Amino acid sequence: MNNNKKSIYSALIANLLIALTKFLAGSFTNSSSMISEGIHSTVDTANQILILYGLKRSKKAPDQSHPFGYGKELYFWSFVVSILIFGLGGALSIYQGVLHIRNPQMMKDPFWNYVVLILSLIFEGTSFIIAMKAFNKTRNGMGWWKAMIKSKDPSSFLVLFEDGAAVAGLITVMILMALSHALQIPELDGLASIIVGLLLVFVSFILARESRSLLMGEGIASETRTEIARLVEQDVCVIKTKNILSTYQSPEDVVLMLIIDFKDHLDTEDITEAINRIRTTIKTKFKFIHYVIIQPE
């Protein structure tokens, strides 16, 4: 989690420094794609603030109204971020690009645009590398895409996706801006805005998909369920694990319920001891499982 916060803070600082300079350069040179890039950086800055807020809220201690804690606050704010990326980032950039294509205006001297883009690429690239290193520590040998899909912590890959889209967008804008100015085709600048917008829409769908799944009560992976069943059935008092129910309250907090068929000759004391033994075994093996509810069949 600390590595995730480090990547979020680095992205926040980078985007805050870049957003204003993009808007100034875009206004000065009459560049639609630079205005879109400014919108992109502003939305990214707001997103990182919201994710940090979600991380803070998710650490609140359980109380009577939320006995399992506030961990799902992170998933809620991640979903809000996906909506912001789609609406304020993607849709506005596409709209800006369409307007510029329908009413093309020749770009003024793009020198300052290039200066801002190169500096932005350096800052965004640095933030992207930091995010890659942070996420790499959580992959546990899995491929990058599989690790993102299986991750239960949106903050771990949010910055990675945002910065990746930002770097791709900057390169696209730089190429099309150069062509637009060299060939005197102002519509290419609008096309760059549309491409940036489509990149943001793609990122928003990925984040929304993962956040929605976790908000809806996504459970532990099938491999983990199989391992838990194996551990339970090793106990001398257990015949079979009938059912395993689970839900993520936060990336590091799972509620687990087991329905277990115990041997018939056991009395209440034997079953109680077996339940305590099984609960300890599971919580020792899987540190992220904090609540284990066991129901004898």
Helical percent range? 55-70%
Instruction: Sketch the major β-sheet.
Output: 3 strands, mixed
Strand content is 5-15%
CATH class of the largest domain: Mainly Alpha
Strand order of the largest sheet: 1-2-3
Number of helices: 9
Task: Label the overall shape.
Answer: elongated
The whole-number mean of residue pLDDT values reads 82
Q: What is the string of helix and strand elements?
A: HHHHHHHHEEHE
Question: Which structural class best describes the helix and strand composition?
Answer: mainly alpha
CATH superfamily of the largest domain: Cation efflux protein transmembrane domain
Distance between the termini: 38 Å
Domain Cation efflux protein transmembrane: 10-216
InterPro entries: Cation_efflux, Cation_efflux_TM, Cation_efflux_TMD_sf, SLC30A9
Subcellular location: Membrane
Protein name: Cation diffusion facilitator family transporter
